[in-house]
Amino acid sequence: MRVGTWNLEGRWSPAHRALLEGGRCDAWLLTEVPAGLDLGRGRLVASAGMGALGGRTWAAVWSAGEAVPVASPHPAAALAVFGDLLLCSCVLPWRGAGRHWPGDGDTAARTCAAIDAITPVLAAHDGPLVWGGDWNHALAGPETAGSLAGRAAIDAAAVRLGLRVATAGLPHRLGGRQRAIDHVAVPVAARVRLARRIPAARLSDHDAYVVDVGSSRPAHRSIER
Q1: How far is Cα 80 from Cα 28, in angstroms, rounded to an integer?
Q2: Which pTM was predicted?
Q3: With 90 as the cut, is the pLDDT of residue 216 above it?
Q4: What is the mean pLDDT of residues 3-13?
Q5: What percent of the chain has pLDDT over 90?
Q6: Which of these, 164, 105, 98, 99, lies nearest to 131 by C-alpha position?
Q7: Which strands make up the sheet holding 43-46, listed edge to edge?
């Protein structure tokens, strides 16, 4: 199964559609999703709108086949069940989110609060799980978008959920020592065949990331499609 994530920055054009279709994903964990997004097939399950950043939703799950929406525990998260697989796409807080973010506190406190709201629903799912989106935190190297406390909270949540973040070592769009802040986390038992960045210059201020996964051994949270 191939799962991708991309922050669309609220923009949509034939070029955006071509990138998504070219990724050939079974599911996309999208963020800052424009109202006009249409891939002509599949199912899109969206989160709440972004308020002052109107015309877009925080997150959405797109699946190639029929998916069943799951009630979201947080405005910046979208969840859907695709077969027996629970897919969750979310945005986590960034530095300077200010009044745009649906919650109080500094970056670390907001990140921890969002994780505390989202992860119980993920943990309650009796089946495989993939969680991703624009987490606004690098999980290796310098931390320039989020906070180190937020990074620690993400790492701890992944461990509790039996996940590993397949994108943690991939480069940020700006290169250098910076690492990706958009992520896809898959079950620890899953075999990651491919994890790569898809450059999206001039389309968004974020690149896209795709991960191919398959099960290497039986496990409660495994994937094989």
Answers
A1: 11
A2: 0.93
A3: no
A4: 97
A5: 86
A6: 164
A7: 43-46, 56-63, 27-34, 2-7, 208-215, 190-198
